[in-house]
Amino acid sequence: MLDLAIATSDDPVGPEQYRWVATDVWWLGSFGAHQHLTEHRLRTWVPARPERDWLLDRSLTGRQRWLVGSAEEAREDGFELADVAPVGVFQAPWGEFHRERGGACIEPAQRRRGSWQLPTPEFLERLPRDPAELLDRLRADHPGRWSNPFSGAVDALRTCLVPAELRAVLYRALTGLDGVTLAPDPVEVGGRACLVLVHDAGRTRSELMIDPVDGQFAGERDVTRTDSRCGLPAGTLVAETAVRTAVVDELGETPDL
Q1: How far is CA 245 from CA 43, 107, 216, in A?
Q2: Could you tell me the sign of the dihedral formed by the alpha carbons of 24, 11, 150, 186, in that order?
């Protein structure tokens, strides 16, 4: 295991304040044989007290990058070029946007138990603080073909809700995985020169960007390692994310960064 020590810290969030998480991401979309990246914009307000209302603003910017084929060719093949994405403004306690029923959220007592993909404070608190034990837990929780320990950790880090002391352990744990290395040079993400942990294994090369100032998740990038069945050649960028965080006083407030 690489002796990776990254300074981590969290901006304090007062009991009436919110952590603002801004995510700009390019995700892969398909119209038959035609492949493209679409830019999504997510803004999330997470209250210090998670039982209070969270706010999620999801939108599409309209920007696209065609990787295979083109918009014109897709239309000629009979596809309506409408991206399927849950856009809009959503508000719910505990961040339970996905469990709304008839415009109302389910009772807080039925909220999710927590997972790597949707971490709760209780889930994060129960995770081991020893790198080797945490790596064992990652492996045990991600035995399948479509999810691996590295991607599972990135799922949690992407929320920007993993506390500083756990982030430090998690980065060290990831260096114990086969195919994980620290890139020799930093990568600029949103004007920040970020450290990069690289997972070069499986179908994609995944890069995890880390802000060296506070050890916060700053972004990610996935590139195909082999030619895909859908026509994407090796070396194709299939996902790219940039993330910023701040502390604000009001739900819906946008910081001046």
Answers
A1: 10, 29, 9
A2: positive
Residue 105, token pair as written in the block? 């959220």
Cα(40)–Cα(23) distance, integer angstroms: 8
Task: For residue 24, give the nearest of 38, 45, 10, 34 by alpha carbon.
Answer: 38
* Backbone dihedral angles phi then psi of residue 79, each to the nearest 5 degrees: -90, 140
Give the pLDDT of residue 39: 95
pTM greater than 0.85 (yes/no): yes
What Å distances lie between residue 116 and 123, 202, 206, 236, 248, CA to CA?
8, 20, 17, 27, 25
Cα–Cα distance for residue pair 114/135, rounded to 1 Å: 18
Read off the pLDDT of residues 113-143 as tens digits, 9 standing for 90 and up.
799 999 999 999 999 999 999 999 999 999 8
**235 in Cβ contact with 226 (< 8 Å):** no
